[in-house]
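Q: I'm building a small set of examples for a reading group on sequence design. Run inverse folding on the following structure and report the sequence directly after it, with nothing in between.
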């Protein structure tokens, strides 16, 4: 559950950063490779190429940050090897009960 929160936070952060700085790699390069045609069609007042690049960057950097978080969390939560104390056998209630028959 924490991993999902980390991904969403990173996605939104890089989405906003890319909307302000549209040439942040690799989103714009992926858009250019896929679309090939430049358009200035606005979506919610934002040019479509910028919005698509922002979504690409959000997903890519979100996955990278989520993977790093997951690996670090597993390393930190790795259980330490502990020695279990050995128990002594319980003596019988009557010390000579085995002789009584």
């Amino acid at each position: 559950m924490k991993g999902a929160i980390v991904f969403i936070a990173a996605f939104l952060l890089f989405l906003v950063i890319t909307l302000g700085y549209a040439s942040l790699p690799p989103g714009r390069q992926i858009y250019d490779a896929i679309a090939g045609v430049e358009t200035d069609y606005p979506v919610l007042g934002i040019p479509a190429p910028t919005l698509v690049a922002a979504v690409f960057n959000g997903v890519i950097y979100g996955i990278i940050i989520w993977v790093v978080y997951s690996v670090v969390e597993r390393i930190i939560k790795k259980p330490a090897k502990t020695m279990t104390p050995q128990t002594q056998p319980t003596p019988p209630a009557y010390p000579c009960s085995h002789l009584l028959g």
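The chain has a mean pLDDT of 85.
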